[in-house]
Write a structure and sequence with these properties.
It is a single chain. The protein is α/β, with parallel strands linked by helices and 269 residues long. Helices cover 40% and strands 24% of the residues. The protein has a domain of 126 residues: Rossmann fold (3-Layer(aba) Sandwich). It has eleven helices and ten strands. It comes from Microbacterium mitrae. One of its GO terms (cellular component) is plasma membrane. Its main location: membrane.
Length: 269
Amino acid sequence: MSLVVSNLHVAIDGKTVIEDISFSVPDGARVGLIGESGSGKSLTALAILGLLPDGSTVSGSITWNGVELIGMPDRKLAELRGDEIGIVFQEPQTALNPIRTLGRQIAESIRIHENVTRAEAKTRAIAEAARVKLPDPERIVKRYPHQVSGGQRQRAAIAMALACRPKLLIADEPTTALDVTIQADILTLLRSLVTDDGMSLVFITHDLAVLSQVATHAVVLEHGRVIEQGPLTTLLTAPKSPITQGLLRDAQATLWRAPETPESTGADA
């Protein structure tokens, strides 16, 4: 299955925020959308998912496996989300309900899309918690979001997104709110899960150093437009646009300043 975005335009309350964006994500590809704050990368993801705010108008084309998503009824889009397209947001509090246990929320994401019993979904939830390397899965699924660490909340959100084995994962800055060591653990986990399941990935970030750990291709955005795109190795070694050159300098500066840290055991992540 592949995602193709062609000549995408988005306006909110009459103001153009995305203009003529085009890129594709072939089956099994790992593509990054990268740019500074306000570049339109998250809005592009929301357009793909059909989650743009009220007052938005969209034109162009977004196809998933040859099926046009723009104009698709909300009910069908909702069925697609979580079943064929998984979503992980920057802050897991956005995805997690504070008054329901982690296990119940993972199980609910399974029951929404699959014809399974509550008992089967509960068993699956524990297995999914183990798959994302949450410690002591049978115990931790009984906890509420506020009772676990930020890294563990993000792992639970990833478990929810991938429980039904989607073919495409959209991850919108999923590690920005985490500290450096836990961030590395989550990136390693995502890369492993995407590879093991043969998923396609759209990874959104402002950090080229982070993107280099999970993606093979990148689309650079500025003010809602594509500035440059291509293999990540090319952008890292021969960036053409000033924006990409600036992102590369920022990444190099971050790596230069980063202190050495002991390898994480994942216990607190």
